[in-house]
Write a structure and sequence with these properties.
This protein is mostly helical. The chain has helices at about 5-10, 15-45, 55-60, 65-80, 105-125, 125-200, 205-210, 225-240, 245-280, 285-310, 315-350, 355-380, 385-410, 415-425, 445-475, 480-495, 505-520, 525-555, 560-580; strands at about 585, 590.
Length: about 600
């Protein structure tokens, strides 16, 4: 309430002097009651709530304007004069006036009271107002923050939309890049194919110039085989694209290059083989092999390339390979024709036993065939072939021409048996599924074939001579008078437990020897047949000639027939025992080392 309003109230409502004292007392009593109520509430604590004082609203900052107006009206009505009282705010030292004016009128009191009440209300509401001001400040900040958040959300929505659009565009760009990469790959592949095709046509000139270069060492150039492969690939490409322009011309030119390369290989190989054949040394096989292997190291890449192309359907390559192999075998044949007979003669001079000679011969030619197989493999990369078999057949033919006449001329059964056993030792081994290395038995077909043929001749010769031996030494045996007397003495002194003691009938002895010789040398059926034939001849000789001779030697004795019968019985038993292959001696008489011969036709 302003001072102007206070003056108006004081003029209209003047407080009489008689009421001032009462109002002061009333104010003092009101303050005392308020103090007592506050003290009582503090003693009770929180149990009872403080009761409202009906007089407290006079000191409350919430007095209504109507009450204040009523009080001022009463004050002005009681005032004796219209003089204005000093302003109550002059009582406050904060206004710079230390003077305290006495309250003389009701209006002054009411003004002072309103001023004090306003100051109290202001002091009481200062914290609330400050908090309210703080809340208004925070509210403004929250409002601004909310606006900022809304702006940020709007910006994020904008960025999210931009991101989605960028993602969509990136996906489109990525897809487009994938399409471009695929197209680029196809274009690169197409470019490579085009370059490859262009290289095929462009390589004709350098390849032709390289193969037509002068000199004899073109084949030894490191680029020779790669150039040959390039020419063949180009030829295959052109034959696969016959519809291209000038394809027939290019095919003919590349075919000529390939033929030229194969011809160069053939010429170089034949030249090397002729040089090796002219420098061959028949005296030293080891030095010859070293020299040939050194040449194989140089020629093997070319000959293996030729061998690989010779297995394909290239008529020119097949013919070139055949010519090169023929030159190779001719070179080897030059050396073997002199080396093999010379070596066989040297071996023959070292032994006097026919079986030992044949054994060393077989070992020698077997080694020659194995060496030839290894040399062929070192040159051509394979260890078998028709040309190699024919070459080894030539070596074995020399061996066969040396061995067969010796077998045909041989008449001794024991020598023929020893030859058969020797040949059986070099017979083809049992078939096996295991792989074989070059020079092993699997690569010695020619050797085993000739050994089988020679063995067959030796077995036939042995069987023939065994039959002749049976006819001449068993069937043709004639007992002499001395043998008859020996037989009679043996019969009279013989013990049934030891029949072959001190003496044995010569045909039985020869039967045992023959069985021991042919055992294991011929087939089982042939051996059984020869044994049965010899046993029958022996028994026939015992029953006819032997019994008659014994009977005639004791003519006139009463027991002549009994002696003859006993002779036949004991000798037959010995003959049956002699026919067994594992029986070689009886009664200490060694018949295995006995040697018989007969003057029968060869």
């Amino acid at each position: 309430m302003t001072s102007v309003q206070h003056e108006e109230w004081e003029q209209r409502f003047v407080v009489p002097e008689t009421m001032r004292t009462g109002l002061a007392q009333l104010q003092e009593a009101s303050l005392q009651v308020a103090a007592q109520m506050q003290s009582l509430n503090s003693q009770r604590g929180s149990e009872l709530a403080p009761r409202a004082n009906p007089l407290m609203h006079y000191g409350s900052p919430k007095l209504s304007a109507r009450r204040n107006a009523s009080l001022l009206t009463l004050a002005r009505a009681a005032s004796p004069s219209p003089r204005l009282a000093p302003r109550a705010d002059t009582l406050d030292p904060a206004y710079g006036s230390p003077e305290i004016t006495a309250i003389e009128t009701t209006a002054q009191f009411l003004e002072w009271y309103a001023h004090v009440e306003g100051r109290l209300a202001a002091d009481q509401d200062a914290e609330s107002l400050a908090f309210a001001s703080h809340l208004h400040t925070r509210l403004d900040e929250c409002t601004r923050m909310e606006e900022t958040v809304n702006k940020v959300e709007a910006a994020l929505d904008t960025l999210r939309g931009d991101y989605e659009r960028v993602g969509e565009r990136t996906g489109g760009v990525r897809m487009a890049c994938g399409v471009l990469q695929t197209r680029q790959g196809r274009l690169a592949q197409m470019a490579g194919e085009i370059n490859e095709r262009l290289d095929v046509y462009g390589s004709l000139g350098p390849i032709t110039q390289f193969f037509n270069a002068p000199g004899d060492s073109v084949c030894m150039d490191p680029e020779f085989l790669p150039s040959l492969e390039r020419a063949e690939r180009a030829l295959e490409f052109i034959e696969a694209h016959k519809d291209a322009r000038d394809s027939e011309l290019y095919a003919m030119r590349f075919a000529q290059c390939r033929s030229r390369a194969l011809t160069l290989i053939k010429m170089h190989a034949q030249r090397e083989f002729r040089r090796l054949g002219a420098q061959s040394n028949t005296n030293s096989a080891s030095s010859e092999h070293v020299r040939v292997r050194a040449a194989a190291t140089r020629l093997r890449p070319l000959l293996m390339a030729l061998q690989q192309r010779g297995t394909e359907i290239h008529t020119n390559a097949v013919q070139v390979l055949a010519d090169v192999e023929a030159s190779y075998f001719q070179m080897r044949r030059i050396w073997l024709h002199a080396h093999v007979p010379q070596s066989l003669q040297s071996i023959e001079k070292e032994h006097t036993d026919e079986a030992a000679v044949l054994r060393d011969w077989c070992a020698f030619v077997m080694g020659v065939c194995a060496d030839e197989g290894r040399l062929y493999a070192e040159f051509f990369g394979i260890s078998s072939g028709k040309g190699l078999r024919a070459h080894e057949d030539m070596v074995m033919h020399v061996f066969y021409e040396q061995v067969r006449p010796r077998i045909i001329r041989e008449a001794q059964v024991d020598v023929l048996a020893a030859l058969c056993l020797t040949l059986l030792a070099y017979q083809r081994p049992n078939e096996s599924n295991e792989p074989v290395e070059p020079g092993e038995p699997g690569e010695l077909e020619a050797f085993y074939a000739v050994v089988g043929a020679v063995l067959e001749d030796a077995q036939q010769r042995l069987a023939f001579r065994a039959q002749a031996f049976v006819r001449g030494e068993i069937t043709g045996y004639r007992m002499s008078a001395d043998d008859a007397q020996a037989a009679v003495q043996w019969i009279r002194s013989v013990d049934s437990d030891d029949l072959a003691d001190h003496w044995e009938y010569p045909p039985v002895q020869r039967l045992r020897w023959l069985v021991a010789q042919i055992s294991g040398c011929v087939d089982t059926e042939v051996q059984h047949g020869l044994t049965d034939e010899a046993l029958a001849a022996c028994k026939q000789s015992i029953a006819t000639h032997g019994a008659r001779t014994v009977r005639d030697s004791v003519r006139g004795d009463a027991d002549a027939e009994q002696l003859a019968h006993q002779f036949v019985t004991c000798t037959m038993t010995l003959a049956d025992q002699a026919a067994e292959p594992d029986q070689t001696h009886y009664g200490g008489l060694n018949t295995g080392s006995a040697r018989f011969s007969c003057d029968l036709p060869v």
